[in-house]
Write a structure and sequence with these properties.
By secondary structure, this protein is an all-alpha fold. It has a domain of 85 residues. The chain is built from 4 helices and no strands. Helix 1 packs antiparallel against helix 2 and helix 1 packs across helix 3. The termini are far apart.
Length: 125
């Protein structure tokens, strides 16, 4: 008889371990890339990978917003374990925005719109 399938919370906690182990090598790669003068796009990508690895590594200790599954057979429209894991991953990890897109749309690394330079607002009126 097969064992019970892991829940979404268990899956996320299991996935946190390799990400936690990947942080140090990624940081070493970033230092090496900066020292060698690699393109800025590559450096931004490594910085983003480090941020994602740190966010996923927190799944091991963080309280995850998972509603316990009801007993019995799941309904047809209920999200699967993979769907729940994907939703939580997208909610907790930063999105990667390529630097070309950031420059074109005037947004910073987190995706927030940068204030336009040269404009001064007088709100004292």
């Amino acid at each position: 008889m097969p064992a019970n399938k892991p829940t979404a919370e268990q899956e996320l906690r299991i996935s946190a371990t390799p990400y936690r182990k990947a942080i140090k090598p990624l940081e070493e790669m970033l230092v090496s890339a900066i020292r060698c003068g690699y393109p800025e796009e590559h450096i931004h990508m490594l910085e983003h990978l480090i941020e994602v690895a740190k966010a996923v590594a927190e799944f091991k200790t963080r309280d995850l917003p998972i509603v316990p599954r009801k007993s019995g057979r799941p309904r047809k429209d209920d999200p699967t374990v993979k769907d729940k894991c994907r939703e939580i991953f997208e909610a907790f990890t930063p999105r990667y925005i390529p630097s070309k897109t950031r420059i074109k749309k005037q947004v910073d690394v987190q995706g927030r719109v940068k204030p336009q330079e040269g404009f001064t607002f007088n709100f004292a009126k």
